[in-house]
Design goal:
Layout lengths: L8 H11 L4 H8 L3 H9 L6 H11 L3 H5 L4 H6 L6 H9 L14 H16 L3 H22 L2 H20 L3 H18 L2 H17 L3 H15 L6 H20 L3 H18 L12 H14 L3 H9 L9 H17 L3 H14 L1 H5 L2 H11 L8 H9 L2
Length: 394
């Protein structure tokens, strides 16, 4: 059965708490989450923020995914995406077997074109097409790397592994996206490419951000910064360094360290003033726009919801900005609006997220949490609200 409204994160938290034989007061004290917030989250009256989910997961000694319910298997099956995961897993597993005599790779230019096209598909959130094509491309790029042996061939292979990370992370397969990042580093070392290695540390930091291990995330960012110092000066190096600062800003904000978050945002803003909009440089969407979007995100992570909504109102996103980033931004704004009691505006933001990037929105835990909170204010919601929930599988 698809996940219902009653099967929200708060319900999973309550179930895990009772398994640990803890009262709500005991869990609140152990997690440093206020008793009022915990009771409202367990009842589904308020969306569980990522920082609250992380604190409760640590206190309960369970993975964050146990509380969010990811991956959403029933919905993946309904969208015929679950069957695409195993071929990706198998493609990632043959990295060290050398040349496959049954695979005849195309030229590097064609392979590079396909790796860029798949990156673009992920940014457009066409996850199904990207996931279907990815295993074959990984096998072909692996054969090309072993055959050609040039730095460029290993860089192309690293790009396919990066796409595997993107797809599996968005679909909620935390274990598999970690494997993909290990493969990125394996290929980056063979390509002698410190920028790829630095980018991989940024993505590793995001994995630890999602699992609420903020200290480790900060260590990975620092390691990434150190790695970037080994790269020759270039716009590419600046872009990845700037993105590392943005990752550190969110990590700091989620740790409720506003001063450090602001310092990293300021550093990223200085770099963005040099690079300008660099949407396609490693497909990180870095630039002045992303700095402003992360400003909204860090305010929301610090529970400064009115400030986050005000910053979002003054933000104009370029028409050619990646749908994946646009959708994520709308989801974050929706949560902030819900916490302010602006339910209709919150639902409008969720609908914008869906319109821009439907596949990503369906599997976004923040969207599901916000929808659950809105469900408790259903009397004031439009008729389309129930249809949105059916589409989510809730």
């Amino acid at each position: 059965m698809p996940q219902g409204i009653e099967e929200h994160t708060g319900a999973r938290i309550a179930r895990a708490r009772k398994t640990r034989h803890l009262t709500q007061r005991e869990l609140a004290d152990r997690s440093h989450v206020s008793y009022s917030t915990l009771t409202k989250v367990e009842q589904g009256n308020l969306p569980a923020s990522p920082s609250v989910i992380g604190a409760l997961a640590r206190a309960l000694s369970v993975p964050v995914s146990d509380l969010t319910g990811q991956p959403y298997i029933e919905e993946l099956r309904r969208d015929q995406l679950d069957g695409l995961i195993q071929p990706i897993r198998e493609a990632l597993d043959v990295y060290d077997l050398g040349l496959d005599p049954e695979v005849a790779p195309r030229g590097l230019d064609e392979l590079h074109g396909d790796t860029e096209r798949l990156c673009a598909l992920v940014r457009a959130t066409d996850l199904k097409t990207a996931a279907a094509e990815l295993p074959g491309l990984v096998h072909e790029a692996t054969a090309a790397a072993y055959t050609d042996g040039s730095d460029r061939s290993w860089q192309i292979l690293a790009s396919t592994y990066r796409t595997a990370y993107d797809v599996t992370a968005k679909l909620g397969y935390a274990d598999l996206c970690t494997v993909a990042l290990d493969r990125v580093e394996w290929a980056a070392q063979r390509a002698s490419d410190p920028v790829l290695s630095g980018m991989r540390q940024y993505m590793r930091a995001l994995v630890y951000l999602r699992s609420a291990q903020y200290g480790t995330g900060h260590r990975l960012v620092r390691m990434g910064m150190s790695t970037m110092e080994q790269a020759p000066p270039s716009r590419e190096r600046d872009v990845v360094t700037g993105q590392l600062h943005l990752g550190a800003a969110v990590l700091s904000a989620r740790s409720k360290d506003g001063d450090t978050a602001d310092a990293h945002l300021a550093a990223a803003e200085r770099i963005a003033s040099r690079t300008g909009e660099a949407v396609r440089t490693h497909w990180l969407a870095f630039g002045p726009t992303n700095v402003r979007v992360h400003k909204v995100s860090t305010l929301a992570e610090r529970d400064l919801f009115p400030e986050a909504v005000a910053a979002a109102k003054d933000l104009s996103l370029p028409d050619d900005w990646p749908p994946s980033r646009v959708s994520h931004h709308h989801a974050e704004v929706a949560r902030a609006q819900l916490w302010m009691g602006r339910t209709k505006e919150s639902f409008d933001s969720l609908r914008k997220a869906r319109q821009v990037a439907p596949q990503q929105t369906r599997y976004h835990p923040l969207v599901r949490e916000t929808y659950t909170g809105l469900a408790h204010a259903r009397r004031s919601m439009p008729e389309t609200f129930t249809g949105f929930g059916s589409w989510l599988g809730m």
